Amino acid sequence: MNFVGSHILSVSQFDRPAIERVFEVADQLEPYAKRQRVTRVLEGAILGSMFFEPSTRTRVSFGCAFNLLGGEVRETTEMKSTSIAKGESFFDTARVLSGYSDVIVMRHEIEGSVAEFASASRVPVLNGGDGANEHPSQALLDLYTIRKEVAAHGKNIDNLRIALIGDLKYGRAVHSLCRLLSLYNNIEFILISPPELALPAHYIDGMRAAGHRVIESSELQSSIGKADILYVTRTQEERFPSPEEASKYKGLFRLNQSIYTEYCEPNTVIMHPLPRDSRGNANELDNDLNENPNLAIFRQTDNGVTIRMALFALILDVVNDVDKYARDVNWYTDKRFK
Ligand code: CP
User: Fold this and answer.
1) What is the mean pLDDT of each successive set of 10 residues along the chain, which is 338 residues long?
2) Largest CA distance in the chain
3) Fewer C-beta neighbours within 10 Å, C or N terminus of the chain?
């Protein structure tokens, strides 16, 4: 895969060498992501950040990643604040905004919309999530996190047993992660969801065709005992026809410390793409797990900055120049990443 000048729209663009290259660059950039070093390698460059759906992690971490490489960020966060609300086409919007930016990240509720925008853009476009379709940078940061977490227990991604729990129908992070994991060897996928929110068949067919074992279940406790990773997801309320319809599925699978202690192996890693829905009728990942050392959710969010820095450095072809424009930090840094 040639990263330079490329759009990142789908995980289908990646093979294992390309994933390894992203992880290698992420490892190289970790001191910058952790504020131990500063680089100005992208000084003068502009990221156009266009999030037409709510976002905390993806929007802010893409912005931080660009800032940490020395670039500047211009944010647009609502469709109604753009001239799309006055009838301007995606084509015209993409042509205009790509004249103001060196790279663009975009999130939109419609599947395929980011690819449509990218086809008219004059600069690389990264998919920050398009409807229920894909979330490529989330899958890369999840896989990077999985690799680090299981390495701490002497394992690697090959032969992984992962339980994916919750709304597997609409969860784009799950869709992209399943496709990336399918590039590895001998994965056991344990899919735990209500039948109505099962992973779409074409994903399962692809996983089986790649030689992986897929088990489907609608029961949490009896299905998680042998998993290395529990990947919990929120009911994606915004994709349902109505909030009432979504509420039928909230709270069906709740992982908490007592279930974890009774049913899981001691070092089972707990992940979630976040946001978790902490409201009483949902609460799929209980706050009583917050002190569990195997809860990796905030290591995932930290890794999101590192992975997104790596994508920018590769796409804008500055990997070999990062250190040339670097210095030590000159402000107080705490121990948050230690
Ligand atoms: N994981 C994720 O996409 O989070 P945000 O919706 O907050 O960006």
Assistant:
1) 97 98 98 95 98 96 98 93 92 96 97 96 98 96 98 95 98 97 98 98 98 97 96 96 95 96 96 95 95 97 98 98 94 75
2) 56
3) C
Q: Which two tokens stand for residue 262?
A: 């009774």
Q: How many angstroms does the Cα of residue 174 sit away from the middle of ligand 1?
A: 13
Domains of the chain with CATH codes: 11-134+301-328 (3.40.50.1370), 136-298 (3.40.50.1370)
Residue 263 to residues 40, 166, 190, 223, 318: CA-CA distances in angstroms? 48, 17, 15, 9, 47
Do the Cβ atoms of 72 and 66 come closer than 8 Å?
A: yes
Sequence-ordered list of residues with C-beta below 8 angstroms from that of 331, at least 6 positions apart, any chain: none
Question: Is ligand 1 within 6 A of the CB of residue 275?
Answer: yes
Distance (angstroms) between ligand 1 centre and the Cα of 57 equals 5
Residue 57: CB within 6 Å of ligand 1? yes
